């Protein structure tokens, strides 16, 4: 390292701040052997000038020999970190700067984006829990060695001391998974004496039994690492002719979940690879890691150009014309015309394009950049049959003409059969590559039959049964009706939906089909109340509860990515109503309605001004509502039809929604345990649902969450807009079976004909503004409604287990009816309020 101009031992002789100025470290060359003396100068008994100069000297060694420092981080960081909390500001500032330089010597690029969070947690201990959550969301694609562990273990040690049980639990999981990612036990052995006692303490002392179970699992993994031998695996690869684009070995993991461990990936030029595996196995994460140059051993992007083709366009550019978005050059326009864009579509805004044209735009833009690899994540989502066929032909054609390699994640078995030359399958934290399309893969693996037959799925889902619906005696009775309704965005003809009449009952099994842009989603939004018809009426049963999962389902949860699924559902229903339903059009008060509020009304000869609806009660086959008037102490009752005629329909709807929500939540306390059980019925285990944030979920896990949240209140109708997007084949099969068993009405929009045919007996074909209804619309179905008696146990807010018996109807004998009528008459004679409900 050159000639020594100063001995490091002189640091120990510095006693005054002025001495610091006499040392120009640019002129100093230090030996590696001086590290021990420098660290000794950082001891708490030393003077603050000694500590400052020691840190500066350490910075000098980092510049001269970063690899040496990187390998010594496990020794250096425990000494420098306490200086951050030194009472002397000079020491604090210098120590932070030195730690930042020390962290920069780590060659694991996965950790670099995490360093600012780590430094912030050092300065403010209150940020440790959030930093632990950030750590659990890091995608690890490079091997985890001692330098990386040197900066992560101190954070984990602080996390294990946190008061929150959830943070202790998360740290145990990260410790367990980190050990599994380490290939050489020697890399982690130095940290085991620090971690093991704390995890053992949690295993024995924490009150939460589930946390103790996680700690026990982590403890056993740590114990195995002590005596583990280096695991060397012999890999076998498929021998193929042609040009190899890449051949690499890597790992892929979140801090809280291992996805791939030291697996191989080999790609051939011109190959079309379908990536298959269950929801949450890491398919999309792998694609993003490849695009972001994070995969260890994968050729860098300046050597091997790759383009990620997204299936949807960012909402921020929805108003930009196509011509402006792609660039108004001859090359760009030629690329667009090759995929079918005419002058009219070139001038349209991107947001006005259907799903098929958006995919064509994205592909044209990608191919303009002459990529070596195209990465397509669920490219058939939101595409109708004709556009899927076009996409299949296009990918086969361009691969043959240009030699571009395609990596495709899709749950569309027909699409993978037509396009793919290879299948890459996730198996036991490894990637296994098979020649041929999906059909060839299933021949070799019969257990994967669920890719073709939805009924062959090995997993099961369960949907909550609909609750009691007053006055509905048979399943064919309409509970939601649209009569001669038309809709257009500008309120004028031509109409997207024109003069349509449909109805839905508890027995409805409706499949809604049609080309992209035909108006299917518009129809559904009118039925659910997200928009109102321009002409016509929509009637809903006053107590009707609808679960609606939109086409772009993730908009429900985009503002809650820092919550877990369990926390999100408890937030959504914490007020006793569905917070996501507050923006329904039929509940919003217009200016005209507000004017009617302020007007004086003559009710039974007295002028009054409306204030609010207090409650409602049953009145024969309808309801009457208790009204509070401004400036009048006494309330009065008005019938539903009378209130609607007076212009208060929105307030009536608001009251009905409130009452329907209360009925849906009556027998299901909103507790963590109950929500956990509800999500488990949809295939989300407690590890994902209760202990992982939504930001780290896969597309399939987010869809399960949205479905689970929408069905929490025991809905009478489930409306699903493209539910097959993002769900893997096993989940889709399980969901299909659950919908068949469900006791309420179902409406499904989907381009997946197999999914619709497995469930629906009635088809609504939407096109040219019309709705053509085919199949069994259950007109002759007079099956009596039998609301299933759900004998179950539930957990109240205090943790007590309660046996719950659902609603059941009791048929009275003639003698009992006479006695009931006699009691009612006596109550009326006494002046008590008695309803005439036949269900009372």
TrEMBL record:
Residue ranges that the Swiss-Prot or TrEMBL entry lists as coiled coil: none
Q: Which GO terms describe its cellular component?
A: cytoplasm
Q: Which family does it belong to?
A: Belongs to the ABC transporter superfamily. ABCF family. EF3 subfamily.
Q: Which Pfam families match?
A: ABC_tran, HEAT_EF3_GNC1
Q: Hey, which pathway is this one from?
A: Protein biosynthesis; polypeptide chain elongation
The molecular function terms of the Gene Ontology recorded here are: ATP binding; ATP hydrolysis activity; RNA binding; translation elongation factor activity
Q: What is this protein called?
A: ABC transporter domain-containing protein
Query: Per the record's keyword annotation, is Transferase included, yes or no?
Result: no
- List, alphabetically, the SMART domains matched: AAA
Q: Where in the cell is it found?
A: Cytoplasm
Q: Where is the ABC transporter domain?
A: 245-454, 480-793
Q: Which reaction does it catalyse?
A: ATP + H2O = ADP + phosphate + H(+)
Species whose genome carries this gene:
viral metagenome
Question: Does the record bear Transcription in its keywords?
Answer: no
Keywords, alphabetical: ATP-binding, Cytoplasm, Elongation factor, Hydrolase, Nucleotide-binding, Protein biosynthesis, Repeat, RNA-binding
Q: Which CDD domains does the UniProt record give?
A: ABCF_EF-3, CD_eEF3
* Region listing for Disordered, in residue ranges: 811-840
């Amino acid at each position: 390292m050159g000639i020594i101009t100063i001995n490091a031992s002189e640091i120990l002789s510095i006693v005054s701040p002025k001495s610091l100025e006499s040392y120009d470290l640019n002129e100093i060359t230090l030996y590696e052997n001086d590290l021990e003396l420098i660290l000794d100068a950082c001891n708490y008994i030393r003077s603050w000038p000694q500590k400052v100069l020691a840190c500066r000297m350490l910075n000098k060694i980092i510049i001269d020999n970063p690899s040496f420092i990187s390998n010594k981080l496990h020794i250096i960081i425990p000494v420098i970190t306490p200086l951050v909390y030194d009472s002397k500001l000079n020491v604090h500032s210098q120590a932070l700067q030195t730690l930042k330089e020390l962290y920069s010597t780590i060659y694991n690029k996965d950790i670099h984006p995490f360093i600012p969070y780590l430094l912030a947690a050092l300065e403010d201990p209150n940020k440790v829990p959030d930093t632990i959550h950030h750590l659990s969301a890091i995608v690890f694609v490079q091997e985890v060695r001692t330098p990386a562990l040197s900066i992560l273990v101190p954070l984990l040690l602080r996390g294990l001391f946190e008061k929150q049980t959830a943070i202790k639990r998360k740290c145990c999981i990260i410790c367990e998974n980190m050990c599994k990612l380490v290939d050489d036990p020697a890399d982690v052995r130095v940290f085991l004496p620090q971690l093991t006692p704390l995890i053992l303490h949690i295993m024995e002392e924490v009150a939460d039994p589930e946390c103790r179970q996680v700690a026990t699992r982590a403890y056993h993994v740590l114990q195995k690492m002590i005596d583990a031998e280096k695991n060397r695996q012999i890999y076998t690869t498929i021998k193929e002719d042609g040009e190899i684009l890449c051949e690499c070995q890597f790992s892929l993991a979140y801090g809280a979940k291992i996805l791939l461990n030291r697996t191989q990936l080999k790609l051939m030029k011109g190959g079309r690879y379908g990536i298959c595996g269950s929801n949450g196995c890491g398919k999309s994460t792998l694609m993003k890691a490849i695009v972001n140059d994070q995969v260890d051993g994968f050729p860098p992007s300046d050597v091997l150009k790759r383009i990620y083709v997204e299936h949807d366009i960012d909402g921020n550019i929805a108003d930009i014309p196509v011509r402006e978005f792609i660039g108004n050059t001859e090359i760009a326009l030629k690329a667009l015309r090759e995929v079918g864009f005419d002058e009219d579509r070139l001038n349209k805004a991107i947001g006005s394009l259907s799903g098929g044209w958006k995919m064509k735009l994205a592909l044209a833009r990608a191919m303009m950049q002459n990529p070596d690899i195209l990465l397509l994540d669920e490219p058939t989502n939101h595409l109708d049959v004709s556009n899927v066929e076009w996409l299949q032909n296009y990918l086969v054609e361009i691969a043959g003409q240009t030699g571009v390699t395609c990596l495709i994640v899709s749950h569309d078995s027909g699409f993978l059969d037509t396009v793919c030359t290879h299948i890459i399958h996730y198996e036991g934290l490894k990637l296994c590559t098979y020649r041929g399309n999906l059909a060839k893969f299933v021949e070799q693996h019969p257990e994967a039959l669920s890719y073709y037959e939805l009924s062959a799925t090995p997993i099961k889902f369960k949907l909550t049964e609909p609750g009691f619906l007053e006055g509905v005696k048979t399943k064919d009775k309409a509970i939601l009706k649209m009569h001669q309704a038309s809709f257009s965005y500008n309120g004028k003809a031509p109409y997207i939906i024109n003069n349509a009449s449909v109805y839905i009952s508890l027995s409805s099994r409706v499949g809604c089909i049609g080309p992209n842009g035909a108006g299917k989603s518009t129809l559904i939004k009118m039925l659910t109340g997200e928009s109102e018809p321009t002409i016509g009426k929509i009637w809903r049963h006053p107590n009707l509860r609808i679960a609606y999962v939109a086409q772009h389902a993730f908009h429900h949860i985009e503002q809650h990515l820092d919550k877990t699924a369990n926390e999100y559902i408890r937030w959504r229903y914490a007020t006793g109503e569905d917070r996501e339903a507050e923006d329904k059009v039929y509940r919003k008060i217009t200016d005209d309605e507000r004017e009617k509020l302020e007007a004086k009304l003559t009710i039974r000869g007295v002028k009054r001004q409306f204030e609010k609806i207090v409650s409602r009660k049953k009145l024969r086959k309808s309801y009457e509502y208790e009204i509070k008037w401004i400036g009048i102490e006494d309330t009065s009752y008005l019938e539903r039809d009378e209130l609607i005629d007076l212009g208060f329909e929105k307030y009536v709807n608001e009251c009905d929604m409130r009452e329907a929500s209360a009925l849906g939540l009556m027998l299901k306390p909103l507790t963590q345990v109950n929500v956990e059980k509800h999500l488990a019925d949809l295939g989300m285990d407690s590890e994902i649902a209760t202990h992982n944030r939504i930001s780290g979920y896969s597309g399939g896990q987010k869809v399960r969450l949205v479905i689970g949240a929408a069905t929490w209140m025991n809905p009478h109708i489930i409306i699903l807009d493209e539910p097959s997007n993002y769900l893997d084949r096993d989940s889709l099969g399980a969901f299909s079976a659950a919908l068949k068993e469900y006791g309420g009405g179902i409406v499904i929009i989907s381009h997946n004909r197999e999914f619709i045919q497995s469930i629906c007996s009635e088809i609504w074909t939407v096109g040219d503004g019309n709705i053509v209804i085919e199949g069994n619309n259950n007109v002759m179905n007079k099956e009596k409604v039998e609301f299933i008696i759900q004998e179950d146990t539930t957990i109240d807010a205090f943790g007590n287990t309660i046996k719950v018996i659902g609603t059941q109807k009791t048929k009275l004998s003639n003698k009992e009816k006479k006695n009931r009528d006699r009691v009612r008459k006596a109550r009326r004679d006494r002046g008590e309020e008695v309803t005439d409900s036949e269900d009372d």
